């Protein structure tokens, strides 16, 4: 169970890292101040974080770790009109 908790924490770090590198890349492209080398470096960092994010998500999926039910899933009715 501790491993699942660590994987969730890693996935959060990777998600925030991917978001941060995406923001940096967008600022570089919009500001037109970045060099080609800087843009390539940011793309490589973004690709690395996205790969690690996918890997950690896949590991959690394979471990069968279920998310804790949130308020939306707890309030959802079961056995709706379309279900049999």
Describe the protein.
The chain crosses the membrane at residues 12-30, 42-61. This is Integral membrane protein. It comes from Streptomyces griseosporeus. The chain has three helices and no strands. By secondary structure, it is mainly alpha-helical. The chain has one domain (2-64). Helix 1 (2-31) runs antiparallel to helix 2. The longest helix is centred in the first third of the chain and has 30 residues, at 2-31. The model has no long low-confidence stretch (mean pLDDT 82).
If you compute it from the alpha carbons, what radius of gyration comes out, rounded to the nearest whole angstrom?
19 Å
Return the average pLDDT rounded to an integer. 82
Percentage of residues in helical conformation: over 70%
Low-pLDDT residue spans: none
- With helices defined by DSSP (H or I, 4 residues minimum), what is the helix count? 3
Distance between the termini: 34 Å
Shape: elongated
Order of helices and strands: HHH
Give the strand tally: 0
Largest sheet: none
Structural class label: mainly alpha
Number of domains: 1
Strand content: under 5%
Region (Disordered): 64-84
Transmembrane segments: 12-30, 42-61
Protein name: Integral membrane protein
Keywords: Membrane, Transmembrane, Transmembrane helix
